[in-house]
Amino acid sequence: MIARRISYLRAFCCEFHAVAPDSFWSASDDELAQAFNGIGAEHWPNWLRAVLTALLRPFQAAALVHDWEYSRNVKSYGAFTAANRRLAVNIAREALYDCHPGVIPAGVLAALLCQIFGWRAYKRGRLRL
To answer: Which of 5, 61, 73, 94 could disulfide-link 79, Cβ–Cβ 3.0 to 4.6 Å?
Structure first.
């Protein structure tokens, strides 16, 4: 089930021209699945991430790229900020591609909240090389 979902989300990222590091595009679906935890911080309870993922469904492809970056990047504040900026860009691209421009402000708010409150989660993200 999750492998099919990851494959779909990656294909959708291609369709709306998501901005992602080269390592995202060359990763296997299994590697992406290991990084993807849905929407929300890894240390949050599973039930809360499941609720947020369902509520923020239009951002799941953008979240896949974001989770990949949180789990793989060098743990610097510059890389953290770049990942959050890419999240905002990808949310806007995903929403415009999918004809849901009205959700862009909520998505940009989510990216801003990641920037303000996500440093701890970013530092704790696992590097699975």
So the answer is: 73
**For 87-97, what is each residue's pLDDT tens digit?**
999 999 998 99
* Orientation angle between helical segments 60-72 and 2-15, nearest 10 degrees: 100
8 A C-beta contact, residue 66 and residue 86: yes
* Residue type (1 letter), 117: F
Measure the CA–CA gap between 65 and 71, rounded to whole angstroms: 10
Render pLDDT for 35-45 as a digit per residue (tens, 0 to 9). 888 787 777 78
Check whether 9 has a pLDDT greater than 80.
yes
Domain residue spans in the chain? Answer: 2-124
Six-digit token string for 61: 């492809």
Signed CA dihedral, 55, 60, 66, 71: sign only: positive
By the 8 A CB rule, do 40 and 52 touch? yes
CA distance 106 to 93: 13
Q: How far apart are CA 98 and CA 61, in angstroms?
A: 11
